[in-house]
Amino acid sequence: MLRIDDLHVGYGRSVVLHGVSLAVPPDGVAAVMGHNGAGKSTLLRAAVGLLRPWRGIIRLDGEDITRLAPHERVRRGMAYVPQGQQCFPHLTAAENLRLVAEGRRGGKAAVDDALDLFPALRDLLGRRAGLLSGGQRQQLAIARALVTRPRLLLLDEPTEGIQPTVVAEIEQRILDLAARGGMSVLLVEQHVGFAVRAAQRYYVLESGRVTSSGAGGAGAEQVVRQALTV
To answer: For the segment 32-46, what is each residue's pLDDT rounded down to a tens digit?
Structure first.
């Protein structure tokens, strides 16, 4: 699905990623973990085209998309949910979803499918997004991305700063998405237990370099925790 090879990227003269390589399996999940400042968000921003790599290649289904603009990557099936429960706060939840659905073939059905995944949003459609809780805004942000019917979903810290009860629901929805097939997920996540359970492949970033990688699953949790304490 997505393959990144020898990626170097940064801001100004500061290099953030030093030769990062990773792969997201078809219809599977790859999890990226690391401490704050390791380069995780920079990796996702480069993958979706918001940052231009200094060196390296990004391929989607074998196609070199390294120089494509973000909207061209979206047309090819990528969707990105940035960190921080981002939404249009002065629009209602319904308007946030319709903004993405309008002009898309099957947009209304896609909204209904997204709401089926996050049914709690149905009772909040008339409420301004800025008045929702952090967990509700995060559910809305993921639902809005799903309206595009992506083949690759990039999630940056989807459970950060959210009350524990909603964290469990969001984690389950991500597991559901991965299990039903038809979509791959590149997940940046601080909750190690959840990340390795969800992922077929994991990668640990430290100072912009991959320091550990391997197969996901519950058995990988101890390995990842040890890598994060080094």
So the answer is: 999 999 999 999 999
